[in-house]
């Protein structure tokens, strides 16, 4: 899947 | 950070605190599904593995710690300290029916086939369905204490606010995470029935009872 990852959410 | 996500996090924190206080002060976990609480502890454990490796902000790390501590404290209170008040006869949803399919899906549909990413994906999918044992238990007992319905309302509102946050971030930052969005929508949809009952009954001061 397209990666728009920041992992800044809880 | 935006107001929707902040309100969502605060709603989530409120839900966790409401439940912990309810169990601690009434010294009883009647009407609460221990299985859902175990699943939530598992969600936080598999999602926050990067707590010490990926520092985002003090707020982010503090909230992750609070969520982890409170969820394990709740499980501890339910299965050890106030075990006598745990209603295992009505908390019968099979957790493996959730964990196994969710685990399989996390392997199949993810952003990156690495252990940390698969565990994060697992936690996102699991959180979407983790409330099912609790909703199932309420449908079996046919009612819920008012404090438990406030807990569920705050918990359901948190992910609904996150959906607004994702729309906001898409239009302002072009950021979107399809896995989190789809799972968040499923999670919120599962609460719709409860939201209807909560707004039509609990807010009018009535007891939350499900039509038998």
TrEMBL record, chain B:
<dbReference type="InterPro" id="IPR000133">
    <property type="entry name" value="ER_ret_rcpt"/>
</dbReference>
<comment type="similarity">
    <text>Belongs to the ERD2 family.</text>
</comment>
<feature type="transmembrane region" description="Helical">
    <location>
        <begin position="174"/>
        <end position="199"/>
    </location>
</feature>
<keyword id="KW-0472">Membrane</keyword>
<dbReference type="Pfam" id="PF00810">
    <property type="entry name" value="ER_lumen_recept"/>
</dbReference>
<keyword id="KW-0813">Transport</keyword>
<protein>
    <recommendedName>
        <fullName>ER lumen protein-retaining receptor</fullName>
    </recommendedName>
</protein>
<keyword id="KW-0256">Endoplasmic reticulum</keyword>
<feature type="transmembrane region" description="Helical">
    <location>
        <begin position="62"/>
        <end position="80"/>
    </location>
</feature>
<keyword id="KW-0653">Protein transport</keyword>
<feature type="transmembrane region" description="Helical">
    <location>
        <begin position="117"/>
        <end position="138"/>
    </location>
</feature>
<keyword id="KW-1133">Transmembrane helix</keyword>
<keyword id="KW-0675">Receptor</keyword>
<feature type="transmembrane region" description="Helical">
    <location>
        <begin position="92"/>
        <end position="111"/>
    </location>
</feature>
<keyword id="KW-0812">Transmembrane</keyword>
<keyword id="KW-0931">ER-Golgi transport</keyword>
